[in-house]
């Protein structure tokens, strides 16, 4: 069966154009993804942007001062505080 025009030959994922398919292959399946890593973590990434996102969301989690729940992004922590700890307080 022939591949669809923008289907990854390795995992079968389909992309809207060749550019995204090529980017996917580079970031997910190629040895290039091993270029950026940190000594204390076994994960490796194709770009410093992906590495930095991983470090922020996994290794530099922020903790709620009220309940201690951890969040990978500042925005999710802010949303957590608003939805869990401030819900209903605006109407008191």
Summed up, what is this model?
With 92 residues, this protein is mainly alpha-helical. The protein contains three helices and four strands; from the N terminus they run αββαββα. Strand 1 (36-37) and strand 2 (44-45) form a beta hairpin.
Structure commentary:
- The chain has 92 residues and is mainly alpha-helical.
- The chain has a domain at 61-92.
- The chain has 3 helices and 4 strands, in the order αββαββα.
- It has helices spanning 18-29, 48-59, 74-85; strands at residues 36-37, 44-45, 62-63, 70-71.
- The strands form 2 sheets. The protein has a two-stranded antiparallel sheet with strand order 1-2.
- Strand 1 and strand 2 (44-45) form a beta hairpin.
- The longest helix is centred in the N-terminal third of the chain and has 12 residues, at 18-29.
- It starts with 17 loop residues before the first helix and ends in a 7-residue tail after the last helix.
- The mean pLDDT is 79.
């Amino acid at each position: 069966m022939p591949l669809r025009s923008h289907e990854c030959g390795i995992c079968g994922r389909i992309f809207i154009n060749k550019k995204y398919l090529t980017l996917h292959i580079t970031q997910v399946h190629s040895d290039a993804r091993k270029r950026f890593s940190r000594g204390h973590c076994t994960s490796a990434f194709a770009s410093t942007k992906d590495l930095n996102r991983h470090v922020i969301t996994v290794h530099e989690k922020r903790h709620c001062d009220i309940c201690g729940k951890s969040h990978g992004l500042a925005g999710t922590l802010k949303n957590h505080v608003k939805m869990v700890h401030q819900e209903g307080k605006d109407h008191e």
